Amino acid sequence: MLVAYITFNGNTEEAFNFYKTALEGEFVNVQRMGDGPQGAQLPDAEKKKIMHISLEAPHGVRLMGSDYMDFGGMPFQPGNNFSLSLHPDNEALADKLFANLSAGGTITMPMAKAPWGDYFGMFHDKFGMLWMINCPAK
To answer: Which residues of the chain have pLDDT under 70?
Structure first.
């Protein structure tokens, strides 16, 4: 499944509430920064930000998103705040897709177990497109 993943600069919750109404969808997952492994160390305002949200809507629409987090010096820039997210059903396929698509590109996060339990990696392909590969934990 290919999913659009959108990053916002602190207003993800507002945006996704709008999309939920506009697309007549439902949230299937909402995690806040305060829920993460370093959540207790964050200021209260940061704890409320969205670490991950997933919206399912009719007609096969799925949107995922989060509030901006600085991964390796990539500044937030409206218009460049989305990525393509693949969700293979096993780690071998995740590794293969990661290797194939990242060839000639720049790896931001190698494939590894993520704090939310899935097998995850992120990179820019040789054309500059940001990809995320997330293999759900079984």
So the answer is: 1, 70-74, 79
